[in-house]
User: What shape does this take?
Amino acid sequence: MQILRKTDQKAYAKAKKLGPKGVVKILKDKGLTGRGGASFPTGLKWEMVLKEKEKEKYIICNADEGEPGTFKDKFILVNNPELVIEGILIAAYTIKATRAYIYLRGEYEYLENKIRNVIKKVKAKTKSKANIELIVGQGAYICGDETAIIASIEGKRGQPRKKPPFPTVHGLYGKPTIINNLETFANVPLAILFDDWDSKLTLFSLSGDVTKPGVYELPVGTNLRKLVELGKPKHKVKAVYFGCFGGCMPYSNINLTNENVCGKDCMLGAHTIIVVDEKHSIVDMATNVAKFYEFESCGKCTPCREGTMRILNILENISLLEARKRDLETLQELAEVVKETSLCGLGQTATQHLLNALKFFRKEFEEKCR
Amino acid sequence: MQIKVNGRKIKCDPKKTLLHILRERGIEIPTLCHQEGLEPQGRCRLCVVEVDGKLITTCDNYPQEGMKILTHTDKVIKSRRINAELLMPDHMAKCMIENKHHDLCKIIADLGITEVRFDPKKKYEVDLGASVIRDDNLCVNCGRCVDVCAEVQATWAIDFARRGHKEHVTPYFEHNLNDVACTKCGQCIAACPVGAISEREHLQEVYKVLKDETKHVIVQTAPSIRASLGEEFGMKPGTIVKGKMVAALRRCGFDKVFDTNLGADMTIMEEASEFLRRVKNNECLPMVTTCCPAWIKFMEHFYHDLIPHMSTCKSPHEMLGILTKTFYAKKAGINPKDITVVSVMPCTAKKFESVRPEMKSAVDYVLTTREAARLIRHFHVDFNNLKDENFDPALGISTGAGAIFGATGGVMEAALRTAYEFATGRTLRDINFEELRGMKGIKEGKIKIKGKEIRFAAANGLKNTRELMKRKDKYHFIEIMACPGGCIGGGGQPLPFSWEKIDKRIEAIYREDSHLPIRKSHDNPIVKQIYSEFLGKPLSEKAEKLLHTKYFKRSQF
Amino acid sequence: MLNELRKIQKKHGYVSEDSIKKLSKKTGIPVSIIYGVTTFYAKLHTKPTGKYIIEICDSPSCYLNGSLDIIKYLERKLDIKSGQTTQDKKFSLFIDSCIGCCDEAPAMLINGKPYTKLTKEKIDKILKKCKS
Assistant: This one.
């Protein structure tokens, strides 16, 4: 696997030779894009922060891997954490930041000591003076959002705010800030050091109704069937969920690129695939996902706060066979408005799974309604 | 910059939000969480419009060249309807008919929503405080109270807790407002668009005493009421309704209508004398005014080191209350026990002040401006068509100095008018202290009194107060008013809150001052009478006993 | 501040009114804000918790692998509902949105340590070990 290659911190030395502009250029040339979901070009993001005139700048490594069904960041932290730290230090060198934060999700706190040791080790080896502070999240999915993670590190309620201004201009404590996903940082040293680094290779987290779940490194554009078959499903596969926020679609012959998946009203996001076979009901899945959003909504804006709760209520009624057909209309309307009017990415994607389920698997819902 | 709104080209200022621009054009956009002067939070999502097929909020977005805005497409209306409907179930379950002016209820009516498909869910206990009542069941999480308490008042008595649909506004650890460091200023009431926060009503008690034949019931009205009460009866902000107000209160059955402005004049007599004594002895300067009960409570929680610096003068309505039950009672031959004093105040903190044990119930009940209007409507008085009447002269003649107590800087101005003449024995030529007027958060100035330069400052809003306190030692005399603009913007004033209204009310107050024949407290004939017949002189033993008070240290939490 | 609150949670098992007041005095941040932050996060509790905090995953991946049965089994075994603490103050049970062990579902954390591929038998064993 590419992500398991060792650099022995030689990428940091090379970065220093290249200089900040050289680092930005190489990242741009090699085509590294963000692995958190938005696929924003990493070199460009760093360049934007580099150009800001503020003296103080910050770096945040988003290790708040909260998306259900996602465990690729954990895979890197367990198997090759040095890459991440080196990537962060390179970023610190590039934009002259003296402080970087790793926002580790609370559920991974058993990795805390390991990470602290690696930080010490890599810092000693690179002789970087940048401070890396580890912040352990306390159980809030929303803190995966850029602006919420900033609020959380600042000691506030982890609620997002409107963008723009983007964190590259107005980030942590109002200063320009690089926020990248952990997998992105891990790829920085690889992209800088190895000529044969392949920008297309990415980590897929495969789970659900498969007998061989796990992290698979495959190129973007891999066929969905090929990936799912690697997981050896026991029964006939009915649908896949791209995590909770990426939505769901019927199992089909599709190449997993952002464009193709968007065409199905889904999002590839962090390359999370949850497989659902024919033994499971989509209504139950929808209820489970709705419960997730009801619990994780931050409460700031009306549609997400109230809407996710009402959606869960209706879905529970459907599961209990107590709903009427017209409740499906209410469900549809709610899902649309939550998507269209919510403040942040969480709300805007919280009902995509439901809209798709109502579109592709409507019969399953109708059968349970009076 | 040019944009298109519903197909029509309009020129606009790129620095203004879309909401502002649209409203200027007469396009009403519904919103609950937007509040003038505060950072937009984008919480309620009702102010959406359609741009390129997408919905965007107008409160926190700015125009871009060539932007095409559609304000009433099916998509816009549908999402507004659903979001309003989502906010309605719990509010509707407890909303009173009388409160049809709630912004949410208005929005629901405008959107033509006749059916709410969801059941009420919230089961919060109502927080029944001495001044402020909070009912989270009515709340729509717009966050305006939280923002006002933090951004304007720097008190942080309340914040959001929990998350998702369990998110709600609360003092820390779900305590009641009574048990935390809350100043009772009532700015949260002024900010609330749905009546989830309101004043603790004293109306029922007042109805009861008005019926009681054995009681001699006296009402007094604060300086700022005459400049705001008219709004409750559809008049323009800034209309002075002194004569109608007095007439209406008589119709309600009060035996006498007294003027708190006279209490203000008394306060000035005592305060100016106290100030000159402190300057002479060089003790505990700066001296800080104490007319504002929200400021007093704020100080007791967060700045109790200042207690020696605080003037010991009671606030005007407490002074008038105790004078009513002593001086007036004696003159009129009424047993003080049979007298009930009701104050009409722009303020919710006055309710708390009136039950402080050290005030010994000089004032029995406090009504806000809003409650006074309810009282007048309760008795079906045709306010708008009343003929003007005058205050009862026994304690009803006042000066321009008393009148300007209602505006920030007014107490200081009134005190300086008197202090100067007391100290020098000369007439103050220009009695208008323009540097103390207006809406600026902190105002300052200086005056030479007997060769000594006296530096003074006035702050309104408690956030500004915290600012001023950082450099308090520069000054000799400081005035603090907790509410924006002073009492005129008090938490008991007619809703909804707006800066424009406050400006208009302030203008009216200074107009009143400039038209009054007597404009200095020490020239007030009743004041002179009270001293000559009853108190002796300012700061006499009797005056100290009746008109002065003390303060206590309270927990910072 | 999040790290401070975490320390308090770890040390006392919950964030009490007193510790919020202490933190406020130390940092100058008002108590209402600290309380708001504390209650925002699922892992910070304002009521005392048991010696063992069990966080059981209810993500779709765990759900598809039978987490519902495991949750019900745990609730019956401990005789509490999720969000509650046993009378002997030994166990608190919380449902977590996802603990990132989706490839080893169903899974749970006990005081931060993961236990994966759960079965009823495995749960019996784990609880027994905790109790002794």
Remarks:
- The longest helix of chain B spans residues 260-281.
- DSSP finds 18 helices and 18 strands in chain B.
- Chain B has three domains: 1-117, 122-199, 203-547.
